[in-house]
Write a structure and sequence with these properties.
It is a single chain. This protein has one helix spanning 2-24; strands at residues 35-52, 74-80, 82-94, 99-103, 106-118, 125-143, 150-164, 186-199, 204-214, 230-244. The chain has 245 residues and is mostly beta strands. The chain has a single domain, classed as Porin (Beta Barrel), CATH 2.40.160.20. Strands 1, 2, 3, 4, 5, 6, 7, 8, 9 and 10 form a 10-stranded antiparallel beta sheet that branches. Strand 5 and strand 6 (125-143) form a beta hairpin. It starts with a helix and ends with a strand.
Length: 245
């Protein structure tokens, strides 16, 4: 009887080890390789942090006819979050069991908007900045221990964003009240977020939430009613991402 029990325990132990080894291989083996790849889909919400000039409320006068008042005094400038999306690719390199470096170059389609309120309500206006950007981040991902088919993580790093197209959209000859608000074409940001790895048999799914803020001013300074009252604009982004590896 003792020998049968020992034999059964030995068989059960070997079977358990085999099942455990198979379970750890779920996720397509993404965590077992030092270098792996994937793709991602991302929902993006962007808005501006606005730094106004001390005299931002004053009326705007025509530069060609200095005594011609074009607007009444401003009462507020605000930024409304606008939704967008992006698609990207993942390149991941394992540094340790719980630490990895990764980059997720993405093509981002997103708009930003500023709303202007004047003392004369008929002058109220909005200026949208439409852009197609390429984001190239360099991130560090710190992972917890894996519990069954789940692992939590935090991620952070920096990224560089570059605008595509738009060079031919000049408004140099437009009237002051028809001018567009412009952003610089390339800028850097820092970003941080949290997420989790969920392991399936043939792939790993990672839902993730990140915040990003530009390091510096993204506004192109110009002399018209919509750019003149603003000293600086900082771009803020909220991103919800689904990574597939």
């Amino acid at each position: 009887m003792v020998k049968k029990v020992l034999f059964m325990l030995t068989v059960l132990g070997l079977f358990s080890n085999a099942v455990l080894a198979q379970a750890l291989a779920w996720g397509g083996g993404a965590d077992q390789n030092d270098l792996s790849f994937g793709f991602s889909f991302q929902y993006v919400m962007q808005e501006y942090k606005i730094v106004k000039k001390p005299d931002w409320q004053r009326p705007f006068y025509d530069t060609e006819a200095p005594f011609t008042q074009l607007t009444s005094p401003l009462t507020s400038i605000s930024s409304k979050g606008k939704p967008g999306f992006s698609v990207g690719f993942i390149t991941r390199y394992r540094l340790t069991e719980h630490l990895e470096a990764r980059t997720t170059p993405s093509l981002v389609f997103a708009d930003r908007q500023l709303d202007y309120t004047f003392e004369n309500p008929n002058e109220n206006a909005s200026r949208a900045v439409s852009s197609t950007m390429v984001d190239i981040p360099l991130l560090i991902k710190l992972k917890s221990d894996r519990v069954h088919d789940f692992r939590a993580y935090i991620v952070g790093g920096v990224k560089y964003s570059q605008a595509l197209g738009g060079k031919g959209q000049s408004d140099a000859n437009a009237l002051p009240l028809e001018k567009k608000l412009k952003n610089i074409r390339g800028f850097a940001s820092y970003e941080a977020g949290i997420g989790c790895d969920i392991y399936f048999e043939f792939f790993k799914l990672s839902p993730e939430i990140k915040l990003a803020n530009s390091f510096g001013n993204v506004l192109v300074p110009e002399n018209h009613p919509f750019a003149s009252p603003i000293d600086k604009l900082f771009l803020r982004s909220l991103m919800f991402t689904l990574h597939f590896e």
